[in-house]
Amino acid sequence: MSKITTELLLERAVPRSTRLRKIETLNLSKLQLKTGDLDPRLFSRLRHLQKLDLSDNLLDKFPNSLTLPDLRVLNCNNNKLEDVTALKQFPLLEELTYENNVYLTLNDDYKVMFLLENLRLLNGKDITKLANHVRRVNSRKLTSKVTAHWEKFFRDQLPEKHTAEQVKSIKKKFLKSVQTNVVYGPSSLSEFTRWRVKMIAEEFLSYSLGLELNSDTEPEEKMDENEEESTESPREAAEDVAQVVYIYDPLVTVTPSKRKRNHSKSGGGNKRSKSQANTEEEEEAEDVSAEPLHFLQCHSKGNSHEDFKTQLWSCVFEPVLDSGARKDPIVSSSKTVATCGGESVCLIDCETGTVLKKYKVATEEFFSVAWTTLTMVISDSRKKAHNILAAAGRRGIVKLIHVAADFCYGEIKAHKKPIATVCFSPTQETHLFTASYDKRIALWDIGIPDCDYNFKASQLLVLEAVSIPLRIALVPTCPEQYLLAGCEGGCFAWNIKLDKGQKSRPFEAIFQFPDDESMTTSHRVDGLAFLNDDVVVSKSSKPGCIYLWSWSRSFDVKGKGCQRTVSAVILAELEWSTTDMSYLTLSTCPAKEYVFCGDEKGSVWMYNLSTYTTAWSSPKGKRSERRISPTQILKWPELRLNGEQLPEILVNNVVSDPALSYLVVLTSVNITAIWKKS
């Protein structure tokens, strides 16, 4: 059993705390801790931790995915650390000490200076100037040498029309050659130089030449049908085999079972006899609206089958290119969905479960993806519509990917801190919004690439937030004028109309919501979406609470002045989990008038609100007095690893296609689940 428990963390907090999410300073020194004691699932709840003392322990490395997004100060003195590269997961780190770790050298100092852009103090010394030199001058020199090595020795070896095998072969030869032959700086830094040269070479192949994208991607393997464990009858099992695809790791199995509709309130189930339960489940099996179709583990770090720690964050269905079909929201998306988490972005065919493409950046952790359709000029001067995918995350950089060409054609260095979410304007296809941990939301014109993929991006607008923006949504009736954002400190609205002269703008309004007996603006809003042209769905830090409220009745577009406080006109509350776990976001399916939200137990809460929206649309529509219960709760099926049940599963995100044919569920354990409407 791990030495670290919730009780220990609360006790070692400075000052002592009653909630993990409230801890800002934590002292875990002198506890004889080993690497395995640092449980990412437990540490992921320390969302506001800023100072961590791990000195005088037995750590030999840092686990990946500790998820401490606000960590600023870290003390690792007197351990047994052998590697520092995992520290890149703490991008806001400003002060780091790791003295008396005998295996660390000057090369490791240079690695952390490169990886941590906000680092000011290393082992008590101000390294600002040296770090800038390492990140800029050193990188520029090495990039020049790597590029020259390719041009001189390898450029002519790659045929214009090349196969995947040819790409794989030349990539292997180039990486080996460049690490051997490119030298720079003193010999004492040779290990750091080789490390950076390999990184630069891989980026060069990927970004400049497009050789990494999908060059070695293979479809995820499926378990053999006979390897499933089933508690159902042979006939039922045979029926389910055609519906359920399994995680490709042969050690992982799923026990499929039909899930009945949940009519009771959360946590209020009554005890029943086994025979009663079986009878009820048989009677209601036909009412199940969705069946589990695929469980994929396609975002693993280093393609490891053992990676059940990578968090998956965002997914969005690819739009259909047929302009006629795009007018109808029911047919405006394909069966292809883009998902992101860890170092990769994947494109998945929801029907077959095939991973069509995979894009990786070794130093990135992707948080958000978004689609747009650009009309581009192709080689013979004809214009053609192409889908472009934007992906962004911890590095604050937006990657622009022309999916059909398997090519990442550019990047925008949008922010110096991580990007939480991105979205495109529905009316201006080149306009991209990026919301960052720097407490700013930027509007970019990404331009349209020419036939050689030359493009010019420009920043049009900066929206100043008072706290970190987590979710953004453009108002459907006026997407070129107003933007809503759910932030760490509340829900805000900005005027984004470009004919106004002001390029940097404060928020125009902050919304207040009920809080026990009063109204408050101070709460985390980690879920935000429009159900239709007027109804906003938002999830706050108040446990068990999802609000539906009216945009038009809450916000007076003719109101004067900035930074107004306005009360959200609540239409209804949705009953949801009583957890205080944050960042489990919600989504909507406007065409079908559904709301979806996952919980801390792997379940998906579904709300069909079609019977309520007509009443809400009237000017004097009354608030629903009682909380609306979920129409259905999809329970997480039983997944096992080596016979053991998988650890705690959080549903970070769940998204449906416009026709509500598929549900894509993203989890905290590196599993993408795809459900299909029965």
Describe the structure.
This protein is α+β, with helices and mostly antiparallel strands and 678 residues long. The chain has a domain at 6-209: Leucine-rich repeat, LRR (right-handed beta-alpha superhelix), CATH 3.80.10. It contains 11 helices and 40 strands. The strands form 9 sheets. It has a 6-stranded mixed sheet with strand order 1-2-3-4-5-6, with no helix packed on it. α4 (128-153) crosses α6 and α5 packs antiparallel against α6 (190-208). The radius of gyration is 26 Å and the shape is globular.
SSE layout:
Layout: H1 6-12, E1 25-27, H2 40-43, E2 51-53, E3 73-75, E4 95-97, H3 106-115, E5 121-122, E6 125-126, H4 128-153, H5 164-181, H6 190-208, H7 234-241, E7 252-255, H8 274-284, E8 290-296, E9 312-319, H9 323-326, E10 333-341, E11 344-349, E12 355-360, E13 366-377, E14 383-393, E15 397-402, E16 407-413, E17 419-424, E18 431-436, E19 440-445, E20 458-464, E21 469-474, E22 482-487, E23 490-495, E24 504-505, E25 509-515, E26 518-520, E27 525-530, E28 535-540, E29 545-550, H10 551-554, E30 564-567, E31 569-575, E32 586-589, E33 594-598, E34 604-608, H11 613-617, E35 632-634, E36 638-641, E37 644-645, E38 651-656, E39 662-667, E40 672-677
Parallel strand pairs: 1-2, 2-3, 3-4, 4-5, 20-24, 25-30
Antiparallel strand pairs: 5-6, 7-36, 8-40, 9-10, 10-11, 11-12, 13-14, 14-15, 15-16, 17-18, 18-19, 19-20, 21-22, 22-23, 23-25, 25-26, 27-28, 28-29, 29-31, 32-33, 33-34, 34-35, 36-37, 38-39, 39-40
Helix pairs in contact: 4-6, 5-6
